[in-house]
Amino acid sequence: MTQKLRVVFAGTPEFAAAALAAIHAAGFHVPLVLTQPDRPAGRGMKLAASPVKRFALEHGLEVAQPTSLRRNGKYPEEAVAAIERLKKTPYDVMVVAAYGLILPQEVIDIPRFGAINIHGSLLPRWRGAAPIHRAIEAGDTETGITIMQMDAGLDTGAMIREGRIGIEAQDTTATLHDRMAQLGADLIVGTLRDLERDGALPSTPQPQDGATYAEKIAKHEAALDWRRPASALARQIRAFDPFPGAFGTIGGVAVKIWAAEPVELKADAEAGVILESDAEGLVVACGRGALRLTQLQKPGGKRLPVREFLAGSPIVKGQRFELREVAPGA
After folding, report:
1. Residue 121, annotated ligand binder?
2. Which terminus of the chain faces fewer neighbouring Cβ atoms within 10 Å, N or C?
């Protein structure tokens, strides 16, 4: 190819902004950036631009923020306008990263090389909205990035390339996210350079076996059920950092728990009961084993090491965290 590859980018959060920054820095022409509409954020709930929009505006890139891209959806007029704008924009390929809107086949088919997705898992494991969270929560020891050719399915397209990352014992979604965002940025630049050079991208269909779905994280999942094994609760706490933050309720107060480690339960105790309370941590009995809580946050407060937290909010041995109500079938 003699002409520089032209890339329309679609993405919203920091994960996507890292990829857009890499594409821009690599010299690819980006005639248009799609991102979600501004959302209320912060204590004042003022409208805030997405990280992708902020990068685009700072670097003089055109931005569009349609509410939908589906003609038969809730916002057909916006969708039609956005599709017409895409059709009038000269570009060769669309790169999609955590965009948050469904791309109908009509949109995927507009550029001659279709749409390429940067997905945060080793497909077919963890298709869907929250692959980083779910990998940690499930206890996976490895994850990665898959660059895939998009189709109308949910993360079902053919795989172009992948990069692997080990999940460390202390990884949170925040720490793993940052490493994966950088890996995704590196992989997409390499992919676009290959496409620019060769005019095609070999791909491999996803295997049917091993597919799992990473459902979007819901706030109600953040409540810890102390009847579960300590090891599972420790993974849940790491998976829900930074959002939504796991919590336990004691004395009617919801206390966020940001760091914890499983420890051996030395004697039988009822789930949720605090067995130790000192500068080393709160040790809480679980359904199997116990959990030492080492970083906590009370409502309206800051994340604090347990020593500082207890100085302002005494919690003593023998108190008990309330047991989470388990939904039928859970």
Report:
1. yes
2. C
